[in-house]
Amino acid sequence: MPWALAGVLAGLAGLATSYLVAAWLGLRGNPVTDVAELVIRLTPGSVAEAAISAVGHHDKPLLVTGVLVVVLVLFACFGLLARRWPGAGIAGFVVLGVIGLIANQSQYGAPATGILPSLVGVLTWLACLALLTAPLREQPYRDWDPQRRFLLVASGVGLGSLVAGGLGYRVGGHRRAVDTARDALDLPGVTSPRPPAGVQVQLDGITPWQTSASRFYRIDTALVPPAIKPVDWSVRIHGMVDREITLTYDDLLARPRHQMWMTLNCVSNEVGGNLISNGWFSGVLLKDLLAEAGVQSGADAVKQTSDDGWTCGTPLSALTDDRGAMLAIALNGQPLPIDHGFPVRTLVPGLYGYVSACKWVRDIEVTTFDSFTAYWTERGWSEMGPVKLASRIDVPHGGEHVTAGTVRAGGLAWQQNTGIRGVQVQLDGQGWQDATLSRRTLKDTWVQWTATLDVPAGDHQLRVRAINDDGQVQTSVQAAPAPNGASGWHTISFSAG
Ligand SMILES: Nc1nc2c(c(=O)[nH]1)N[C@H]1C(S)=C(S)[C@@H](COP(=O)(O)O)O[C@H]1N2
Ligand SMILES: [Mo]
């Protein structure tokens, strides 16, 4: 048992010093999160989806915990191995360190300094293992003295780990420094959101028309979101262009401001799900930037790369037409939140996020779809991701019990870059009834709808469907989110009495 404990304590000490070094260098992750991200990169899409649908939004904390549990067990094994074969214990730690190193250096744009945390970690492991096992090797272990020495060394190593870990936590001020830089920004031309009159209907329980930044849904593959100071940010526009352009944050601020209300949604949103939000975005039009770069004929795609290495492929035409695709710098009148792509992300009305809304965007390559694959297309999702016509019931909630009689129902409908003309609801399979739309001045946002229903006592079913501005009626055909977005009519059950 003391041998396993020696392995675990040495292991924890190395994790603590590597964490401290990573924090001190201002690296995005540490060896544990690096390995967890490597696991994400190596996981086939279908397995990832199954895992995410099983554990939902706990997937990231669970993954990090899983990596930690596995390494703790390995540490104990290395300690036990070291009893018979000292070399095997050492080799175990070295192999683990090399995995951490590979996990770090295989990241997109990993700085060379990223090898330091793993190196320091391995050195700590070996030193602590030697320290902790020396008293255990001293002949008869029943002797009180070696045991006391072991306990002494063990408490020392444990305490040292706590100090290093705590210090790492304190020093890990990189994100806080970025927060401070973010708070100090004053963005020219960025105005506060003022929702157009009439877009918000008065109905308890209906989703607010404008989503606050803190409630904006979040989807990304980064365990530790990139924290980038505006002065450290730039984006390169290159590939099939006449003139390559590199833009700094100040270059962007100096350009004309484009602002719009826009609803963003995730392709993996289930029918009735809430991976959708609506905000006031400010930025710079991509069509102007691409015109300046001079797109060459033959190009049909743009490959975007994020600071964290995530990639997506966007149809070029959606970036050059008049829909308002932009490099966004602000959400709801404030600099983008770090988790939503600060300092700069891409937004393209009418396309799902996975093919367009690159957060922490660093590289925009004009190219052809033939010549590359991107993060989600490699995992089986469609190359094109136009938003499907969809609608949702917010009120009543599924399973709710309401007072029989006149019941007001309400919810949302959307198809960005097309617009919604009408919404209809159907109670218990009877005829379709027109719902009332809130004022719809905007084709790139969701629209709220309400309907007044005559509901007798008993169990009921309510469904909704939308009609877009082209007159197309939302399909009843049910499809799962993969590979190009869910479809089908949102249906809820409720009771009245
Ligand atoms: N760098 C990066 N950008 C990304 C992603 C990601 O994983 N990494 N996910 C995309 C997906 S799938 C969606 S739906 C949107 C979500 O943006 P939000 O988190 O700001 O709502 O971001 C997109 N941009
Ligand atoms: Mo998404």
Roughly how many Å apart are the termini? Answer: 64 Å
Task: Give the overall pLDDT as a whole number.
Answer: 93
Shape: globular
Strand segment tally: 19
Can you offer a commentary on this structure?
- The strands form four sheets. A five-stranded mixed sheet has the order 2-1-10-5-6. Strands 3, 4, 7, 8 and 9 form a five-stranded antiparallel sheet that branches.
- The protein has three domains: 2-183, no CATH class; 213-379, Oxidoreductase, molybdopterin-binding domain (Sulfite Oxidase, Chain A, domain 2, Alpha-Beta Complex), CATH 3.90.420; 390-496, Sandwich (Immunoglobulin-like).
- The protein has 497 residues and is of the alpha+beta class.
- It is globular, with a radius of gyration of 27 Å.
- It has helices at 2-24, 31-42, 45-55, 59-84, 86-105, 116-137, 144-171, 174-183, 249-253, 286-293, 316-320; strands at residues 234-239, 245-248, 258-265, 276-285, 301-306, 311-315, 326-331, 334-335, 345-347, 361-367, 390-395, 401-402, 405-414, 420-427, 432-434, 436-437, 447-455, 458-468, 491-496.
- The mean pLDDT is 93.
- Helix 1 runs parallel beside helix 7, helix 2 (31-42) crosses helix 5 (86-105) and helix 5 (86-105) runs antiparallel to helix 6 (116-137).
- Molybdenum atom (MO) is lined by residues 219, 266-268, 352-354.
